[in-house]
From TrEMBL:
It comes from the Bacteria. It comes from Candidatus Moduliflexus flocculans. Gene3D superfamilies: Ribonuclease H-like superfamily/Ribonuclease H (3.30.420.10). Keywords: Exonuclease, Hydrolase, Nuclease. This is Exonuclease RNase T and DNA polymerase III.
């Protein structure tokens, strides 16, 4: 198994009507040496300026990004390269991140290498601590900036910290 931490940025709340404009992934392992980053051209004429502002892009910039088919093909190939068997999708907000990744994979490639399941980092930490009111974010070393590479790195650092300091049993 390979745990793949994913973070996405979008110009609106749902795929299809709005666009995923950037995402990053890292294979969760000591050193965090296997990373992936892509920016994607919008697929819709709809967009919310505040959403783009949050992640630091202008609409004009996003219109120059890569074609989604190219980005998703490269991501699928990267997953196959870093995952010898079943890749496991995990993210800080899997309800949001998963819907975009799954939709884009199925829409552009007709398949999702992650299958039909995802894991939520925050829920994992709450269960580990046996407390529904705790938050894992203090375990990040890399600041959360809404740049997907920064955010995915910080989240992967948090998962590794859960393993190292809190006894989380996870095969890396």
């Amino acid at each position: 198994m390979a745990y793949i931490m994913v973070d996405i940025e979008a110009d609106g709340p749902i795929p299809g009507d709005y666009s995923m404009i950037a995402f990053a992934a890292v294979k969760v392992e000591p050193g965090l040496n296997h990373t992936f980053y892509a920016t994607l051209r919008p697929i819709s004429e709809q967009w919310i300026p505040e959403a783009l502002h949050t992640c630091g892009y202008s609409r004009e910039e996003t219109l120059q990004f890569d074609e989604p088919l190219n980005a998703m093909t490269a991501f699928r190939d990267w997953i196959a390269e870093v995952s010898l068997d079943e890749p496991i999708f995990i993210s800080d907000n899997n309800g949001f991140d998963w819907q975009f990744i799954a939709w884009y994979f199925h829409h552009f490639l007709g398949e999702n290498p992650f299958g039909h399941s995802s894991q939520n980092l925050g829920s994992l930490y709450k269960g580990l601590m046996k407390d529904m009111f705790v938050n894992f974010k203090h375990l990040r070393h890399t600041p959360h900036t809404h740049n997907p590479m920064d955010d995915v790195t910080g989240n992967a650092e948090a998962l590794l910290s859960m393993r190292e300091h809190l006894g989380l049993k996870i095969k890396l």
